[in-house]
Amino acid sequence: MGIAAEASQLNCAANMERDLMQDSLQQPLAIAQESGLVDFEPCIRSGVWYDIGARENMEDEHVLIDDLGEYLGPQTLLTTPRSYYGVFDGHDGKNAAQFVKEKLLKYIVTDVAFPIAIEEAVQHAFLETDAAFAEACSANKSLSSGTTAITVLILGREIFVANAGDCRAVLCRKGKAIEMSRDHKPNVERSRIEALGGFIDDGYLNGYLSVARALGNFHIEGLKGHNCPLSAEPEVRRAVLTEDDEFMIIGCDGFWDVFSNENAVAFARRKLQQHNDPEQCSHDLVDEALRRNTSDNLTVVVVCFQKNPPPRLFPRFIPRRHLHSDK
């Protein structure tokens, strides 16, 4: 086949893939309109900051797409917000993190369950991405590595958080920290791990990994595969955004090692009240994590759901009752 013919075939394949993704994304708008979820539309703004921290190499990856319609092409430019964010914390190199960053969204929006069953589509996509990376590693051993992954998909007012590993997403709802994901530490999943023949040594899965779920890691014998203890299946949580929802923090474990959920939300809220800039807020959070001597790579994404900065909250005033006695 000539170079021109081969290039033409590649372009056709790329166009077909993009058309399929666009068609898949058209359907959630109609579903949202029918269910009344478009009464309140979040104003999506986001920013990210990252730093190598105390490590020799930067193995984190991230993705920020405020407008999926604009990202995928003009045919999907509709009024309902549709956004996608992800943080991917690599280990043993960053190849797995890069691969998941580039492939996962395609598998989500082209899955047969999308958009009728979003949670199912996302779960399928994680596993399909994991299988595709296994094939890539079989063809090229130098890619061998692993990554945790957390993604946030926003369709209208519905938000879907999928997590495999120990990255974390925390929602700020009227000043309160709402945890939207669960850290998959080995001790948390001990029963599942031991049922599959795995073990935990000093908090590490099979004495090697500090997480019980991750993508990749096919190069580690006995860790990944059929009836093996390391799982790529994510936990998916759904929420409906309201006018009380102010912003979300998505970060790798290096950030959450030195911030509690409540502390991170309070710190970010103060910064957003000062400058109302999600990227600057991400920068502020990373700088503070470095000041607190985190020992890992750092990636922090802040997604705001309102145009205005978070309002100042005042304690509810309860008038004191005065008892008078008659003389």
TrEMBL record:
Keywords: Hydrolase, Magnesium, Manganese, Metal-binding, Protein phosphatase. Its cofactor is Mg(2+); Mn(2+). GO terms for molecular function: metal ion binding; protein serine/threonine phosphatase activity. InterPro entries: PP2C, PPM-type-like_dom_sf, PPM-type_phosphatase-like_dom. One of its GO terms (cellular component) is nucleus. Its EC number is 3.1.3.16. It catalyses: O-phospho-L-seryl-[protein] + H2O = L-seryl-[protein] + phosphate; O-phospho-L-threonyl-[protein] + H2O = L-threonyl-[protein] + phosphate. It is an enzyme of class 3 (hydrolase). CDD domains: PP2Cc (cd00143). Pfam families: PP2C (PF00481). SMART domains: PP2Cc. Residues 45-305 form the PPM-type phosphatase domain. Belongs to the PP2C family. This is protein-serine/threonine phosphatase. It comes from Ceratopteris richardii (Triangle waterfern).
